[in-house]
Amino acid sequence: MKASILIVLLTMSINAMAAEGFDQYKAGALPAGWSAGVTGNGESRWTVETDDSAPSRPNVLRQSGVGDFPWTVKSDARIADGYVEVKFKAISGKRDQAGGVIWRWKDGNNYYVARANALENNVSLYYTEKGRRNTLKYVDAQVSLNAWHVLRVEFRGKQIRVLLNGKAYIEMDDAHIGGDGLAGVWTKADSVTAFDDFEYGPIK
Q1: Residues spanned by the domain of 134
Q2: What does the pLDDT look like over 73-104, one tens digit per residue?
Q3: What stretches of the chain adopt beta strand conformation (E)?
């Protein structure tokens, strides 16, 4: 393969997918280019922290606040159809031990979320509308505490597919939230959860 063709292909691959590993940020604060909040009551606390177990060391993004549904989104991660993927580790929580991805985020009260829960051992899909979380589907799945998992959602139009560790657990159609929106990650209640290797992009 000629060098010029290889450069073009590599450029196309980079443009097609964006990734965030959090290693370039200083520990103790929300990374630049991200915004955070909570749907409902309470407070979120998203900070970059060092974690020797991180899939791509040294840093992770960690949520340790307590609120109904803490979230954070990447300001340039705007996408209508494609995928969002993250590695997450549920660390602790008495009320919940959850990690999730969000997409088509319009604001803190309107977005889709798929999450895995180590306390309940399941994967679930919701849409949040006007600040109210609405359940679309629950599926049993093994989600170990203090272990890294890969959570991925693929979406095109009204089609949604949720995968955990490479296995599809939910495949369904839903049209409650259309168009583009931001992508990010999410937790629930008192979950202390770490995230690494956040990715998003189109699906061919």
Answers
A1: 3-201
A2: 999 999 999 999 999 999 999 999 999 999 99
A3: 18-20, 34-42, 46-50, 59-63, 67-79, 82-92, 98-107, 110-117, 122-129, 132-140, 149-156, 159-164, 167-173, 181-186, 192-201
Q: How many domains does the chain have?
A: 1
Q: Is 140 exposed, middle or buried, given 0-12, 13-18 or 19+ CB atoms closer than 10 A?
A: exposed
Q: Specify whether the CB–CB gap between 182 and 77 falls below 8 A.
A: yes
Query: How far, in Å, CA of 186 to CA of 193, rounded?
Result: 9
- Identify the residue whose tokens are 């309940």: 120
User: Pick from 72, 57, 153: which is nearest to 108 by CA?
Assistant: 72
Whole-model pTM: value is 0.91
How, if at all, do strands 34-42 and 122-129 pair? unpaired
CATH code (residue 95): 2.60.120.560
Q: What is the CA radius of gyration of the chain?
A: 16
* CA–CA distance, 90 with 35 (Å, rounded to integer): 21
The tens digit of pLDDT for each residue in 24-49 reads: 999 999 999 999 999 999 999 999 99
Contact by Cβ (8 Å): 20, 85: no
